[in-house]
Amino acid sequence: MATSPPTPFFGARFSLYPMSDRYVPLILDAIGDLRTSGLEIETDDVSTFLGGDRDAVFAHLEHAFAKIARTGTHVVMAVLVSHGCPGETYCEAPGGVQAPTRSTARGGNAGIEVSCQWSLYPLGVPGHMDVIYREIDRTKTAGVFKAGKHFVSHLRGDLHEVLSTVRASFDAACAEVPHVTAHFVIAANSPTAKE
Description:
Layout: E1 10-18, H1 23-31, E2 40-43, E3 48-51, H2 54-69, E4 75-83, E5 113-123, H3 128-142, E6 145-149, E7 152-158, H4 159-174, E8 179-188
Antiparallel strand pairs: 1-3, 1-4, 2-3, 4-8, 5-7, 5-8, 6-7
């Protein structure tokens, strides 16, 4: 009986930056329930790593950011996600491509307007720019694309819609490329956005 190949490694590393002198309680409150999430968790003085179920990781990223944003505090979250790289000091992309499981996240809005700068990196394959351009088009179709900028696409919209679109683009790239990373930075309640 044939066995299915192991699920490719997936994880996210993120940092929260509340622009407040209360940053310590805001961050600790936002990540406080991660220990009971069932995910692999590693927190240090720079960032927090989440590894495991893709739906759970993205849900916790949204929850942590929203918890601070709902206080009205200007907050920024920087996130790096990776698919197909099993180690920190080495990387062995699987020989073939195994598509990630399809998202089971429900639709809806978070009620938080965000600005996001997003970059996608399909690694080690010819034609990687075709994948990137296709996924930029996906953000346009989703209605969250605002502008192309140096090194990033600028996305704007509801937190849930933006994260869902980033996730859909990331998953689509992972379905055809063995090793994919993406970097995105999200901001809410910025005084600059009101100017």
